[in-house]
Every structure is written in structure tokens, then in C-alpha cells.
Amino acid sequence: MGFLAMQFSQGLVLGLVFQLAHVVEGTSFPNPDTHGNIEEAWAEHQMRTTANFATDSKLTSFLCGGLNRQIEHHLFPKVCHIHYPAIGGIVKETAAEFGLPYIESSTFGAALVSHYKTLRKLGKETYAENKYINKSSCLFTRKVSAAYL
User: Fold this and answer.
1) Which of 49, 50, 90, 108 has the fewest Cβ atoms within 10 angstroms?
2) Contact 118, 25 (CB under 8 A)
3) What separation in angstroms does the CA of 118 have from each of 64, 90, 124, 144?
């Protein structure tokens, strides 16, 4: 039981940390070109696709091992996370200087709400773009909605 509890809690924590750091309002999801390349500088890509959350919470920083500061983690992966708060100020100023986003949520709860809103937005966009999403449900009733035509 202890092993299962540990696996469940660790999976939940890791899932939340990575989702709240990458799938929130303001982050971008660039598509590669036909050759599989994304045409933007590496550091710029990190700034546009990554976000921080609860950076003022010492408890969150401790429990996440500094991974709540994903921007700094992505830009400086070999630097110990205890230096991320100091580095964060410099990165934030530099991002503003070059017109790059520095995406952050002030609390864990705010990041969770932002994540939910982003999932709803992405789901609605995908549903609107793909008229065949729920086609399998129509097979049971043999009735095809006008949306599928």
C-alpha cells in the first residue's frame, strides 16, 4: 500500500508541476516546419513555452525542488535551484528589455486555474477544427449531426 501511495502521490506532483509550467495561459505551442525545425532561438523558445508559478512560496519551492521556476530551470539547467530566485530577477529584466514574455502565476492555485482555462481553450479550438471528433458516438444511433456534414 505504501508503494502504491508513493507512486500515486509522486505521479500527481510531477504531472502537476510539468503541466503548470508548460500548459497555462500565455505559453505558446509552436509547430515545426516541414523539416521538423522550429525557427526561433533556443532561449526565446524557452521563454515563450515555459512558465513559473508560486515563486514567492518557500514551501512550494522546497516541495518542487525549485521546479516551480521552470523558466530559470530551462535556461540554466546545471545551476542549483537555490540560485533561481536571484537569477529570476535578471531573467525578468532581460526578457522585458528584449520584448520577450516572462510568464508566471503568483500562486499554485492561480496556475491551476490558468491551466484549466488553457485546456478548455485548446479543447474548444480542436473541437471546432475537427468535425469528426465525436463521430464514433453517431455509429450507435445511426443519426449523423449536421455538424459532421
Assistant:
1) 90
2) yes
3) 22, 28, 10, 30
The three-state secondary structure class of 104 is strand
Q: Which helix (H) or strand (E) holds 147?
A: none
pTM of the shown model? 0.78
Residue pair 82/66 in contact (Cβ under 8 Å)? The answer is: yes
**88: nearest Cα among 106, 98, 76, 78:** 76
Sorting pLDDT into bands at 50, 70 and 90, what band is 129? Answer: confident
Closest by CA to 109, choosing from 9, 20, 18, 12, is 20
Strand ranges inside 1-149, DSSP E = 51-53, 103-105
